[in-house]
Amino acid sequence: MKTELLVKFGERIKVLRKDKNWSQEELADETGFHRTYIGMIERGERNPSLININVFAEVFKISISELLKFD
């Protein structure tokens, strides 16, 4: 299901953010996205574009394929 994929992606972003000890606000500063957008991503409420997925990968200093490893 589409929503399940969005939830898994959001959980992955949250784990990576917490691994860096960043708040949503700090991740927003690093990515250039609004804090509310970060929260919506983490809750699986938004479907990020490929460009935004790449921004997350660059900020976390990992490849897109690594970013999309959910298990």
Automatic annotation (TrEMBL):
Alphabetized, the UniProt keywords read: DNA-binding
Q: Which InterPro entries match?
A: Cro/C1-type_HTH, Lambda_DNA-bd_dom_sf
Q: Which residues form the signal peptide?
A: none
Give the Pfam families listed for this entry. Answer: HTH_3
- Every copy of the HTH cro/C1-type domain together lies at 13-67
In terms of superkingdom, the source organism counts as Bacteria
SUPFAM superfamilies linked? lambda repressor-like DNA-binding domains (SSF47413)
**What molecular function terms (GO) are annotated for this protein?**
DNA binding
Q: Give the PANTHER family listed for this entry.
A: DNA-BIDING PHAGE PROTEIN (PTHR46558:SF4), TRACRIPTIONAL REGULATORY PROTEIN-RELATED-RELATED (PTHR46558)
For this entry, the protein name equals DNA-binding transcriptional regulator, XRE-family HTH domain
Look up and give the organism this protein is from. Paenimyroides ummariense
